[in-house]
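Retro notes
What went well: the complex prediction finally ran end to end.
Inputs used:
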Amino acid sequence: MALGGRVCKSVKFTRVTSMQAYYLVILQGSLLTVGVSLLALLVSILFGLGGAAAKLSGNPILVGLATFYTTIIRGIPDLVLMLLVFYGGTIGINTLLEKIGSEATIDIEPFAAGVLTIGFIYGAYMTETFRGAILSIPKGQMEAAWAFGMGRFQTFVRITLPQMVRYALPGFTNIWLVLIKATALVSLIGLQEMTYLAKQASAATRSPFAFFLFTGALFLVYTSISLFVLKKVNARYSLGTKRGTL
Amino acid sequence: MEWAVIFEPVNLALFGNGILTTLWLLFASLAVGAVLALIFALMLTGPWASLRWLVGAYTFVIRGTPLLIQVYLIYYGLGQLEWIQARWNDVWPWTHFKEPFFCALLAFSLNTAGYTAEMLAGAIRETSGGEIEAAHAYGMSRFQTMLRVVLPSAMRRTLPAYSNEVVMMLHSTSLASAVPNMLDITSAANRIYATYYLPFEAYLAAAAIYLTASFCLIGFFRFAEGRLLAYLAPQKH
């Protein structure tokens, strides 16, 4: 990966207006960070629900597959998986297309590679969180739903899902905070989100300290907002639950 | 698939060097991080509100920003400051800021210190009151109680969470590849990919190495937990 040499040798505060322009560009790039994070979160929730369903299904093949998925993914660094999907995926798809006899070539976009890999990786962590949350719901709840004649899907949407949110939220919050920070890695495969732009701005103006500090501060703002929002969600889903007091 | 390329002596040597760098980075940053974490955890649970606030702010920033930004801030950012530039040619500690390895090591150590400090502080706070009362009843001072009663048990109880942190740090060392002139496992894979244009083979080999290392670390911690936390397990009859 060509990341260029060390760019910072002197401080210059002469081009103030262009510095401000760079801050604006990074601020705009942060919207892309939010976009990647939210889409990756959606993908990871889907993988997590699928994985949890497979692990709880009792079918030995599904259980084996899900266990393989969560064990392997959690043993490999995010960055290596991302490089594998981004560089390997492009070649893999094109080799496949060639074998079918198609002339077309497909390029995987850094955006898609980032969203899919981050979603796939954190889906493994979501699987464990969701599995624990589903197991925490008293069995009687589901049995009562079946007794009412609800199907498996109806039971899941009406009974399991609303209750598991409360149990899953602490784990979910942790995973989300790690996931937001993982999007910085997508800059290494060339997506122009805020970390990438901060690096570009540093190279152009030779004042990396301020730009990386600014990017770090933006990440702090996003994680703080998330914590605030998730606290509200937690309060909403904990309505009506009794807490024991010592 | 052309796996033969990976097993050519040149490339095996490349991965070998990468493994050495990664492990060296991992254990050095864990060692420095653990010492810092112990100091920070004592500050977090200590009686001085200003220190609690200061260390709390530190862990908030470290845990709220991506490690990649921290690495860039130290490697590219600090090099911009004139104060350091004036010193990094001859004044001792600052000469290291020219070395990529030192910068990566510093970033990783500060990062793991932030996470570990919060874990350890949590375990210290959770120490059951009876143990501390018993220590006081024996006439131990605050310092003695901390050293003899609270810390040994808190460190053991941190072990399960700390094993996660160690595996996370192993994975985080792959970010060293974002620093030029570093040759860790991921950089070795990057070079093989760039030379032979074989992304699958290069990155799958790297993934397999990380996976093996992760399992070894997890196995070691299972063993250590079995020995050190045996007294917390349910009693067998």
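What we learned: The domain at 3-232 of chain B is CATH 1.10.3720.10 (MetI-like fold).
What to try next: split runs per interface for comparison.
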